[in-house]
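Hey L., structure's done. Input below.
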Amino acid sequence: MPFDPKNYHRRSIRLKGYDYTQPGAYFVTICTQDRELLFGNVIDGVMHLNRMGLAVQKTWLDLPRPYPYVDLDAFIIMPNHVHGVIVLTDDGGGGFVPRQPSAPEQLQAGQVPLANQVETRPCPGVNPRHGLPEIVRAFKSFSARRVNALRCTCSVPVWQRNYYEHIVRDHDEWELIREYIENNPEEWDRDIENPSFPRRGGS
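Output:
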């Protein structure tokens, strides 16, 4: 059964009472303000990033630097949104962590090749440990600065105020999400985030 993002887009954006600092994998979708097409074009099922898309990509790939307990799994930058899996590792010294591709592979075609193996490796302690909302906030803030610098604007909103998240429950769901992310450009014409996609009752 394919992963259907519509099932979680209609739920509460945050799970009340859930501790988003704890280790786990989180699938996030972050959309541009008013679904503006900023980051490039999908041509024949392939996403081609422009300069703003590359700036957003760099910000995403840099997230583990200020947050060493963050690992990045599959992700894709689309013309007006980003899908990705953020993994918060166990900062006590290892745990279930996706194996990451090499840096040159990460920079091809606007997406990270899917990890297909896992490994256990140390993860240094961090104090304080920020949760998913702070990590997403930082990504949105720093990427917006870079995008606005490229388009010669100042403090113009780049992203919607909120974002969608889904707590990945198990490996089977993880693989479905990876497949969904990998195939996203091929499904652009039928994507609910595509401004050309017909919506019932408006956006």
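DSSP finds five helices and nine strands in the chain. Residues 8-12, 92-126 have pLDDT under 50 and may be disordered.

-- N.
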